[in-house]
Write a structure and sequence with these properties.
Layout (H helix, E strand, L loop, with lengths): L6 E10 L6 E11 L4 E5 L6 H9 L6 E6 L2 E2 L7 E4 L11 H13 L5 H14 L15 H14 L4 E5 L7 H18 L2 E5 L3 H7 L2 E5 L7 E6 L8 H4 L3 H17 L43
Parallel strand pairs: 3-8, 3-9, 6-7, 7-8
Antiparallel strand pairs: 1-2, 1-4, 4-5, 9-10
The chain binds adenosine-5'-triphosphate (ATP) and magnesium ion.
Adenosine-5'-triphosphate binds next to strand 2 and helix 1.
Length: 302
Amino acid sequence: MTTTKHLELTGVDIDFPTPNGPFKALSNVNLKIDRGEFVSLIGHSGCGKSTVLNIVAGLYQATKGGVLLDGKEVNEPGPERAVVFQNHSLLPWLTAYENVELAVKQVFKKTKTKAEMKEWIEYNLQLVHMDHAMHKRPDEISGGMKQRVGIARALAMEPTVMLMDEPFGALDALTRAHLQDSLMEIQADLNNTVIMITHDVDEAVLLSDRIVMMTNGPAATVGEILEVKLPRPRHRLELADDPQYNHYRAAVLSFLYEKQRTPGEAPTKPTKQHTSTDSTTTDSPEATTPTTKTSSTDEQAA
Ligand SMILES: Nc1ncnc2c1ncn2[C@@H]1O[C@H](COP(=O)(O)OP(=O)(O)OP(=O)(O)O)[C@@H](O)[C@H]1O
Ligand SMILES: [Mg+2]
């Protein structure tokens, strides 16, 4: 590994003030990411994944340590770091089109004409299959649709860094698979850096160059990092029976369910089949029960 990295988190701690005193959510988080790398963050609910993303986004300030992007300290949000939020955050008084337009104007006002911007906005909404509803407001569309608009908005900014907080969590299996494939293609084209939070082990293995597995909080930190050396382009159907793919999958599951079992979680019943390749999500007890093998598009249980 080289010494100068594109994106560096160094010794990041964060203490949130609470009525009972400071709550240390993260402790000594260190992560170095190359330009164009696709990194997934995975860990149990509440461990601090969104907090890490918010610090990189410049929305939260680390209490100790900090973030450097191409050598510059990150202290505030910027258009080169687009965020897809966990709770799709669209402006409620604007239509889907206008929500994307706002971001596109911010980035391309000087470089694209009005007609080019319109075409670009429509193109990105088409990409997430939202062209039929682009003139509806957020209260007129479903949660999954709002999430898709949020993804279109982020993609349309062509950011250097895409920060995605469970971007596909609220989507049906087919749309999710389609958007995962689109994201892989777009990322291959633009070579932008992606940090994506996911609860879906298959999604993490399919998309990532590295999977960063976080320990349970409080004072959560990076537990293990798994390098996924599957060649690209990757095809979900071909990978389903790939031993290397299944090896990566098992490694993540082992971290989550053996090494970082959630406190209070019921122990695994010894009578139940519990093979390491059978569970896919990190956020529900049902996730540890066997599922069918088409699990990269399993419905999120939550
Ligand atoms: N603004 C805040 N004030 C106080 N505590 C906070 C704040 N934001 C997060 N926390 C706490 O920090 C911890 C990490 O929260 P975070 O939202 O980062 O978890 P997460 O890993 O994203 O969880 P999930 O998978 O459920 O989205 C939690 O204990 C949470 O309660
Ligand atoms: Mg979160």
